[in-house]
Amino acid sequence: MPIVEKSLVSVDRVEHLEVEGIDVSGDWNTFLRSRVVTDLDVKIADWVKGQPQGETISRCWQCGTCTAGCCLHTDYGLEEFNPRYFIYLAQIGYEEELRRYASTIWRCVSCNKCVERCPKGVKVEEVIHTIGTYLELSGGAAESPADRFDRAYTENLLGRGILDEAALFRTYERLEGRRTPARELLRLGLTLLKSGRLHTGPFAHRTRGWNRMRKVLEAKLTEDRARRRASVPAPPVPSGRKP
Ligand code: SF4
Ligand code: SF4
Q1: Is the CB of 109 under 6 A from ligand 2?
Q2: What's the pTM?
Q3: In this structure, is residue 230 part of a structural domain?
Q4: Does residue 62 sit in the same domain as residue 150?
Q5: How far is it, in rounded angstroms, from Cα 70 to Cα 227?
Q6: Which of 17, 59, 101, 126 could disulfide-link 120, Cβ–Cβ 3.0 to 4.6 Å?
Q7: pLDDT: is 217 or 32 the higher one?
Q8: Same domain, 30 and 73
Q9: Are both 60 and 152 inside the same structural domain?
Q10: Centre of ligand 1 from the C-alpha of residue 238, in Å
Q11: C-alpha of residue 109 to centroid of ligand 2, in Å
Q12: Domain count of the fold of the chain
């Protein structure tokens, strides 16, 4: 049976229909809206495959085992989070549909259950993160809370070479534009203090020789971002227009 995107299926649902005393209510006239080849751009799969974390994308045979075992999809009932479908859309190059999930993809919690279960050895978690990166770098995807957290985390770690949990929490709150009630802050602070993880302000540690290491890491991060940005294919030309 072919796999078809839900957005292309148009169903005429009849809630109550009787013909000569027989109840024939149900789904009638199921049509697939047409899709033309120019909607698809296989360069996406080529790009994902060319990245160190995306090279296993072409092994996927769409069995759906990853989705069936994914904690977000199954345990948390987040139906729209469907790793098999993300891979499928990237494989066929259906960018317009894929972009609808640009933020959803980043809700992956990296539990790697999908990787353990995949019968084809697809590194599902890495592949879908690479697809998310493609969507970000090629423009149009709004920065998600996960992206903002990544940014805050990286900046925090680069600062002193050791994570300052309290500062990370404050930065993330600022980026998200929210304020935690004072009582909750106190509770969190005490928990961090008791667990010996309150490395902030006067208690702050610093990794020895970190300045040199930070320069190396910053240069590597800048180079990596520039390389990935440069390798993203140009967006597909809409049908009917010349490149
Ligand atoms: S389990 Fe593996 S082969 Fe099956 S759909 Fe998921 S990624 Fe593809
Ligand atoms: S790593 Fe992500 S995609 Fe895989 S099972 Fe966990 S949440 Fe789902």
Answers
A1: yes
A2: 0.63
A3: no
A4: no
A5: 31
A6: 59
A7: 217
A8: no
A9: no
A10: 30
A11: 6
A12: 3
